[in-house]
Amino acid sequence: KGKGKKQAKAATKDVKQAAVLGAGIMGGGIAYQAAVKGMPVVMKDIAQPALDLGLGEASKILAKGMQRGKVDAKKMAMTLNNITPSLEYSSIKQSDLIIEAVVENPKVKGIVLKETEETVADDAIICSNTSTISINSLAESLDKPERFCGMHFFNPVHRMPLVEIIRGEKTSEDTINAVVAATLRMGKTPIVVNDCPGFLVNRVLFPYFAGFSKLVLDGADFAAVDKVMEKIFGWPMGPAYLLDVVGMDTADHASGVMADGIPERMQKIDNDPVTVLYGSERLGQKNGKGFYNFG
Ligand code: NAD
């Protein structure tokens, strides 16, 4: 009985200090989201310009909030004060929730996760924000895989409500409960899913993108498809526009992983419009040109 009580307490223990590894699009967004909800967070990267970008992103979101009257000077100061940028591992020693958001490369992630485990306390929880790498395979780089799971935010983090919490084969129930509690504290909606290619959202989304690509290859006009899906069917945006938001590099990589993982549901085609656009450096919104041109 007593043990159960202790476990329940551990499972809901409040995060005192989070850490985000990688201050890119996602790391910057996750650090902002923790900070704006009052959770102190260390944002660690390997390069000062990356940290500057991450902090700049947080300031931009806050400035927009101020313009709309949703953020006041006090909230802006509190949020920025809650983010501690750093280039040193020693800065995450006290962190009890670590969210890895470095480049989507299994080798780099494996090294970063191992270095993290060597730095933090034994009961700290470690998560990965990977979109496509198996949580079970990443867990192999850790001595204590039971304290590890996926914590998959969506881009842009401050606007997308969902966080997928991915349970690896060795993830403990306490870890899942603590990450669910942290997600709620960050103002997001958690769902717990098992480890599989694409988890839940990308497992639905990428076969949809593949269907769209096939339509375009069969002669459909991408803008006409978007118009149907958006204006008539009623979705917030059509597939071509959504691919411009996701980015052709990210989409091309992820669709390859998904096609390998669920070949019965989608195939990777060589002249896929996403691959062709990526090849001609039309990456989408991030470089101003994709299916559409952005001013
Ligand atoms: P990004 O390229 O914008 O940022 C990656 C950051 O990691 C860079 O700032 C880089 O300097 C840093 N980095 C590299 N090696 C490091 C190390 N050893 N230690 C600390 N920092 C290091 O990438 P991103 O788009 O933010 O993606 C990060 C992760 O989030 C990836 O796993 C990606 O799959 C996932 N993800 C991305 C999206 C998206 O739409 N971009 C959405 C959900 C999840």
TrEMBL record:
Top-rank taxon: Bacteria
Organism encoding this protein: Fluctibacter corallii
Name assigned to this protein: enoyl-CoA hydratase
Classification of source organism: Bacteria, Pseudomonadati, Pseudomonadota, Gammaproteobacteria, Alteromonadales
Entry similarity comment: Belongs to the enoyl-CoA hydratase/isomerase family. In the central section; belongs to the 3-hydroxyacyl-CoA dehydrogenase family.
Location of the 3-hydroxyacyl-CoA dehydrogenase C-terminal domain: 198-293
Ranges of residues in domain 3-hydroxyacyl-CoA dehydrogenase NAD binding: 18-196
